[in-house]
């Protein structure tokens, strides 16, 4: 089947499928005319990748998971390690998001939201940028 049909069956855009081929995640056969020819196993691999990406796994994690999936002699602890590391990264990201949310809520509460030019939100952002060494001085 062609890339359009593979896209329809796998639920992935054709552009994504071509990208996955370009980086070596899938390797469809080529027909005599040189066109990609996707088979049922390719569709299954693409669906696997779609699900893994929807769970937030990186491309490299997907590469490892796909290799483990296709290796019938794999040890499940290898898969578990990848998943556990991903959960740890998600938990860290959640902590960062909660911290950002808290900071923004405090800044929103401190902002009068009226016609005055002073703005604690912008002041905080500018101050944090200076503290990070990103800004040498305020604009003149």
UniProtKB/TrEMBL annotation:
PROSITE patterns: HTH_MERR_2. It is found in: Cytoplasm. GO terms for cellular component: cytoplasm. This is Cu(I)-responsive transcriptional regulator. Keywords: Cytoplasm, DNA-binding, Transcription, Transcription regulation. CDD domains: HTH_CueR. One of its GO terms (biological process) is positive regulation of DNA-templated transcription.
